[in-house]
Amino acid sequence: MYQFSYADVQEDGVAEARERERKAINHSISLMNVAKANGIESREAVEAVYFVSRLWVRFVEDLASPDNQLDQELRANLISIGIWVIKESERIRLRQSDNFQGIIDISIIIRDGLK
User: Fold this and answer.
1) Mean pLDDT, the chain, as a whole number?
2) Of 19, 18, 93, residue with least CA distance to 52
3) Residue 4: per-residue pLDDT
4) What pLDDT digit, counting tens, does each position of 22-35 carry?
5) What is the secondary structure of 14-59 as a DSSP string?
6) At a CB cut-off of 8 Å and minimum separation 6, what does 53 contact?
7) Mind listing the pLDDT tens digit for each residue in 53-98?
8) CA-to-CA distance for 1 and 64, rounded, in angstroms?
9) What are the C-alpha distances in Å from 95 to residues 11, 26, 57?
10) Which residues, in sequence order, are CB contacts of 110 under 8 Å at separation 6+?
């Protein structure tokens, strides 16, 4: 009986964590859409790139943690995606790219996979 209740609490914790991740990714998508509309040299672009980079660094750190319980192959794939997003964000920051849409598209796919 107590194990069942504990399992319910754990599942609620996972569901809440996924919801927070979805909200953070939604926020990053919104920021990137505004940045895309305002251009690579806009303040919005700087803010979007900064937020996206910080978000994905945090995701990669969590995925690389030995405490992360996701399947190892899935973790590796998500880390690869995260590294790409971080690098692409840096390219935008350096004005070597304006690939906001690529980051938006990947973010939408990852967000939708959290459901």
Assistant:
1) 90
2) 93
3) 44
4) 999 999 999 999 99
5) HHHHHHHHHHHHHHHHHHHHHHHHH-TTSHHHHHHHHHHHHHHHHH
6) 86, 89, 90, 93
7) 999 999 999 999 998 989 999 999 999 999 999 999 999 999 999 9
8) 34
9) 43, 24, 20
10) 25, 78, 81
